[in-house]
Amino acid sequence: MSEGGIGRGLVTFLTDFGLAWGPVGTCHAVMLDVAPGVRIVDVSHGIPPFQIRAGAWVLASALPYMPAAVHVAVVDPGVGTSRLPLALLCDRGDVLVGPDNGLLLPACERLGGVVEARQITNRDLMRRPVSATFHGRDIFAPVGARLAGGLPFEEVGPEVEIGHLFGPPWRRPEYEEKRVVGEAALLDSFGNVRTNIETARWPVEAGARVRVRAAGVDREVPTARTFGEVGRGELFAFDDSSGYACLGVNQGSAGEMLGVRPGERVELERM
Amino acid sequence: MSEGGIGRGLVTFLTDFGLAWGPVGTCHAVMLDVAPGVRIVDVSHGIPPFQIRAGAWVLASALPYMPAAVHVAVVDPGVGTSRLPLALLCDRGDVLVGPDNGLLLPACERLGGVVEARQITNRDLMRRPVSATFHGRDIFAPVGARLAGGLPFEEVGPEVEIGHLFGPPWRRPEYEEKRVVGEAALLDSFGNVRTNIETARWPVEAGARVRVRAAGVDREVPTARTFGEVGRGELFAFDDSSGYACLGVNQGSAGEMLGVRPGERVELERM
Amino acid sequence: MSEGGIGRGLVTFLTDFGLAWGPVGTCHAVMLDVAPGVRIVDVSHGIPPFQIRAGAWVLASALPYMPAAVHVAVVDPGVGTSRLPLALLCDRGDVLVGPDNGLLLPACERLGGVVEARQITNRDLMRRPVSATFHGRDIFAPVGARLAGGLPFEEVGPEVEIGHLFGPPWRRPEYEEKRVVGEAALLDSFGNVRTNIETARWPVEAGARVRVRAAGVDREVPTARTFGEVGRGELFAFDDSSGYACLGVNQGSAGEMLGVRPGERVELERM
Q1: In what order do the strands lie in the sheet with A85-90?
Q2: Same domain for B198 and B117?
Q3: CATH number, domain at C44?
Q4: Does ipTM come in above 0.90?
Q5: pLDDT, tens digit, for every residue of A132-183?
Q6: How much is the pTM?
Q7: Any chain A CB within 8 A of the CB of C73?
Q8: Which of A62, A183, B148, C220 could form a disulfide with B11, with the two C-beta atoms 3.0–4.6 Å apart?
Q9: Domain assignment present for C124
Q10: Does A247 touch chain B (CB under 8 A)?
Q11: Is B75 domain-assigned?
């Protein structure tokens, strides 16, 4: 597993730090300091502060389309408290590094599931002294970079029970043949409502109609492959490019049209 | 052309995806997966959604100051429809990769013009399956990275007539000796009004005065080299650092002062 | 000093350019063009336009936690005027490159102080022609990259008197045993009020109480190690992870609660 490093030296990085001040760059520099050969890809640093759900959705929608790598993710309202720092080895060969608050779980499931979970306790791998409020810099970034640089997975710390990990930051959708109840997970920058409904479980094929119930709205809408297939300003449902059902408006905002917010119920029913 | 890759392995990347969620990072990882040796430079991912004009201006103002490279650009309201995916070889040696909607054209003109245009059709170069809504990840990023990694330009697909390409996303300025009529292309983050008026064609030299007509305003203003040469809060015209005429306010916003919006007419006249 | 380059080829980069348009990417490409082997880490490009104080705080809070490197920083309302372009060698081995307006000074002090200051005058190291409004692209980026690539420090230009450098962009805090008066330096993206009060000089230990006087508010608050130790919505003071005293609210905004703005007085007193 560890020869040459997980992911051929690739580390991905997601946080809710924002890019307006310095913490993301500090973590990059720390990674390059402890493992000079790694290549770092920023998944996003624009997760709204403390929104574990949004961070989890972005990881789960992005990581399956990347090569196997070490993925460091920090959305961590419990920093400095007793929540565990984790490293999770997935079936596909990826390792996810971050806090035990559910952030990592949905992505792990899409990477084949967790095959080995470890608590990060090895202080030799951390930046010293470890601060109380910046574990991204002091624990997660250096440990992730070292794993990508060739550190054997076992060295981060002792195994923990996979069954004891904190669960995903949303209720799992209820999948029925004609109906599914899930949640809005994220409003993206184009105004689309990204849900946690997996299209591998509940396909949204183009050319049909579905009933959408969300935030008090109850409407029948078409399904389509892409924006150009519906009229300007028209609401429609589609299988987004990352395996989740999505509500969009051609050149408009489905989020604004529906008034639905992350965490709220979204129900789809086939007509 | 292709030995060692166009641009010595350098790929630049511009989109309207924003940095709040995951698509930019996914494209980076896809590029490093298919061509591990490339170096990626982000030009911008803050182009307002679907604003082809703004994306075109940023490309045209930035690329001439970079070394020759592969430039991947995605502002693509027509994704998944019949608009062509293109690779355009320019006289300076750059290749621009993106949709056929005019986004790439103004930059190509500043790089010596398109010398060979090809439609991207070679599915072996794409991520499979190709989604209907994320051609950045599935077509443009992997094809661009492979070109930077050494793929011969001819392999992307068949030639298309240069004369049949979709035109630039603005009306070309009307250049006269004392007068020019162009458009506001972008309000930058400092509040400057960046126009599509090329100063190589219509010089804006410091120390003179010009009449500005835009958005109902008609004012005579000084020209200057830099902000510190005019009074605080004073509107002035200058030759910006990228070859376009620009309206600025020292420590203020010309966009707010004039109320002009991207796409609107800007007329300058020498006094 | 110069064999193999300062900072093993690492360049960090901070500006107030924002990421919505192209200048940051242009500077990256220029750096990779003149020094292909350098690795670039973005500290931040979200410093509010012309806010030297915010840029100085971000540099000073981030750089001590990075390895020694060349640090290019551009927040430069005086671009094109007579202010000097500088390269400052610090005791730890770092070189800071940017304008002489106080931006670089607080970080230099935390890196052991400036040991040699030089004015950048060597035009062979610059992009030509040098524009009047984009010294980031034409002077600071290429000179910084060349230094990281191995250019001897002395070649940038003649020495200048360290005592003649423009001072820090804030009043130095008045440290007394029980009381300290400093400034709000930055409201971070979590809503925390970052001050310029150094905890190495005036420790903020957890488990005590301090009186906070800022923006007309006068309140006694607890001190804590981390957010999870105080109630939701509670204001508290803490030693942030970068060596400065900070005011925070668990899952809320201290900046909004206090109404304090960057540059305003913050007084702390031990109870």
Answers
A1: A39-44, A10-15, A70-74, A95-99, A85-90, A114-119, A159-160
A2: no
A3: 3.40.50.10790
A4: yes
A5: 999 999 999 999 999 999 999 999 999 999 999 999 999 999 999 999 999 9
A6: 0.95
A7: no
A8: B148
A9: yes
A10: no
A11: yes
